[in-house]
Amino acid sequence: MISLTPRDTLPEDGTRGTLVGRVWLPQAGGPAVVAVRGDGVFDVTARFPTVSALCEERDPASALHATRGERIGDFEAVLANTPPDGRDKTRPHLLAPVDLQVLKAAGVTFAISMLERVIEERARGNPSSADAIRKEVVRLVGDDLSKLKPGSEQAMRLKQVLIDQNAWSQYLEVGIGPDAEVFTKAPTLSSVGTGMDAGLHPKSTWNNPEPEVVLVVSGAGRIVGAALGNDVNLRDFEGRSALLLSKAKDNNASCAIGPLLRLFDATFSLDDVRKMDVGLTVKGADGFVLEGHSSISKISRDPTDLVAQTIGPVHQYPDGFALFLGTMFAPVKDRDAKGEGFTHKRDDIVTIAAPQLGKLVNRMRGSDECEPWSFGLSALMKNLAQRKVL
Predict the structure, then answer these.
(1) Are 120 and 343 within 8 A, CB to CB?
(2) In this predicted model, what pLDDT tens digit does every residue of 324-371 receive, in sequence order?
(3) Are 357 and 12 in contact (CB under 8 A)?
(4) By three-state DSSP, how is residue 90 classified?
(5) What's the pTM value of the predicted model, to 2 decimals?
(6) Is 332 in contact with 325 (CB distance < 8 Å)?
(7) Domain 6-107+181-387 sits in which CATH superfamily?
(8) Beta bridge partners of residue 294, listed in sequence order
């Protein structure tokens, strides 16, 4: 069972920043948009029916500070009641901090993860083949492409060299080519928050967490804040065929975002995101421990470029979107048999952390074991209408 405390959840500077969350209110039969402050959790749904509506404000942080709201209780109590084991269904619990935003993700945005995708493709989803292929790929393209600007003349020369050596890959195309890979991660409203179970397809035998920063963007394309995310990935499914991307990425509870959304204000900006280090710890019931990190400073494409390639004249998102920025973390540490690398086991506890954003903690279960997702868009609209906040 996961145990959550404010000290292990909030950013290092506590509630100094502008922190937004969503809380399930049993008495209302639906979610509330909340401000998490030093003196408690405050329901601001009467002013902002959705987090999306808040993010459409000209200055979301100022708008939230100007709204007192109704106090629900202590953050500690709401947080402690969030894990599904032992949850009191008559009391509030925390949800993922986004709602109407479309859940998007950018892939192959770091050189290391790009090489791992090439390895997955060549291994055809077989982890036992990966080690030998990894050595061959590194021999051909090297292991430090961090200074290579995607779409540049240098990148295009490298592309031609690799084509000539029959070593080109669709993953290298989006890794160093002009066009970023941006895909829809999961349905709107389907993400899970901290303390909740995160899902793996029950047929997957080679998978891993992907610790990432998630930008929250308004319908006008303005980046308004950030959270942490786990873009859970099935390496065996995607490795067999890129056309299985939706099955590799979009399963029940496979999109985790949290613990809270931190809006940009005087204490936190996009430049802080650009310098951010995201840590990962996986602890298994078998005693296995895996640690790693992802440094946004090593990203191949600037976050503003990824956002610009996501929204514009060709693609519109009136209610905004949440964009996973990608990860440089691709675990290769052997867990069981030598040369087979890492894969999850049931009840792994995954912690994704960054000083400015806090900690996102999830327990890994099969997607069919996680809480079913049943509260969709129509249920949300009906609930908000019944509460007379629309």
Answers:
(1) no
(2) 998 877 777 888 877 778 999 999 999 999 999 999 999 999 999 999
(3) no
(4) coil
(5) 0.88
(6) no
(7) Fumarylacetoacetase-like, C-terminal domain (3.90.850.10)
(8) 278
